């Protein structure tokens, strides 16, 4: 499964990069395949692995912020691995052709 999620601290002002970095650090340390862009972090793995990472990422932000917003989107497709790469490669192939 692939989960794209965004964790946003609330009540800490406009500069939230430091808090978001805490969440991304959890994802990177998980060892699971992942990508971070301007809006979301995507992580790929089995259900329990991915949800544990999301939970710990939220907890990392929650430890320093009075309120946390979580947006999550999941692609649950058993048996598919390397979806983070293969999905993008498929789109690029169509764009090139």
TrEMBL record:
Sequence ranges assigned to domain Thiamine-binding protein in this UniProt record: 3-92
Organism this protein belongs to: Streptomyces curacoi
Protein name: Thiamine-binding protein domain-containing protein
Family the UniProt entry places it in: Belongs to the UPF0045 family.
InterPro entries tied to this protein: MTH1187/YkoF-like, Thiamine_BP, UPF0045_domain
Top-rank taxon, per record: Bacteria
This protein's GO CC annotations: cytosol
Pfam entry (one): Thiamine_BP
């Amino acid at each position: 499964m692939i989960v794209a999620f965004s964790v946003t601290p609330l009540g800490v002002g406009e500069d939230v990069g430091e808090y978001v970095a805490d969440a991304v650090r959890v994802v990177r340390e998980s060892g699971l395949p992942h990508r971070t862009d301007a809006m979301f972090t995507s992580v790929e793995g089995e259900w329990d692995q991915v949800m544990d990472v999301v939970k710990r990422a939220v907890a990392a932000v929650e430890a320093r912020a009075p309120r946390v917003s979580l947006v999550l989107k999941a692609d649950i497709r058993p048996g598919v691995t390397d979806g983070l790469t293969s999905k993008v490669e498929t789109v690029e192939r169509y764009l090139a052709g």
